[in-house]
């Protein structure tokens, strides 16, 4: 069954497509920037496929990301152990409180499926593995970097769609994984230091490993 690969923008989708082997049983779609667009776009694609009688087997969010400096260097490939929604909760006098601690029955975390993460890690032995935090604003100062790292000490990268894609996949009962390549370091914003070509090239290089999931991702 087909694996759905979700990116935010077309340059990411094009980079993934450039690395896919001929006949790969995958579909690549760019659905927009941010967790809301990602969730809505992914859910729509999943529903349409279900309605056609050709449901997807798994969902992979792929794209570029900001890497934690000293952990995830420029051009590195990162595999998410889980997608974490940053700052979904409440600010209190004692600090930030995630929504699951407030008692609303929601969660800020979606775990990556081991059935996807294990073969990806095996196929990409140089990839870093850890938490990818979903943000709605690119971290751009030293102060905000420190606050983010303190709140999410296990993070290796930040991106803007993973949690949204993960929630849509979970709602459809499908396994989810997130693969990112590092275009910039998290910290004071300096667009001249971003390395988009290197990150896109890494996406292309990782695409065969994602395509291989089509034969190893049972529904559910």
From TrEMBL:
| Gene3D superfamilies found in the cross-reference section | Nucleoside phosphorylase domain
Question: Which top-level group of life is the source organism from?
Answer: Bacteria
Family designation:
Belongs to the PNP/UDP phosphorylase family. Futalosine hydrolase subfamily.
Biological function: Catalyzes the hydrolysis of futalosine (FL) to dehypoxanthine futalosine (DHFL) and hypoxanthine, a step in the biosynthesis of menaquinone (MK, vitamin K2).
An example Gene Ontology molecular-function term: methylthioadenosine nucleosidase activity
Q: What is this protein called?
A: Futalosine hydrolase
One GO biological process this protein is involved in is: nucleoside metabolic process
Can you cite an annotated GO cellular component?
Answer: cytosol
Tell me where in this chain the Nucleoside phosphorylase domain is found. 22-190
Catalysed reaction, written as an equation: futalosine + H2O = dehypoxanthine futalosine + hypoxanthine
Q: Which Pfam families match?
A: PNP_UDP_1 (PF01048)
- Keywords of this entry: Hydrolase, Menaquinone biosynthesis
Q: Where are the transmembrane segments?
A: none
Pathway(s) it belongs to: Quinol/quinone metabolism; menaquinone biosynthesis
| UniProt-listed InterPro entries | FL_hydrolase_MqnB (IPR019963), Nucleoside_phosphorylase_d (IPR000845), Nucleoside_phosphorylase_sf (IPR035994)
Q: What is its EC number?
A: 3.2.2.26
**Organism of origin:** Pilimelia anulata
Q: Which gene encodes it?
A: mqnB
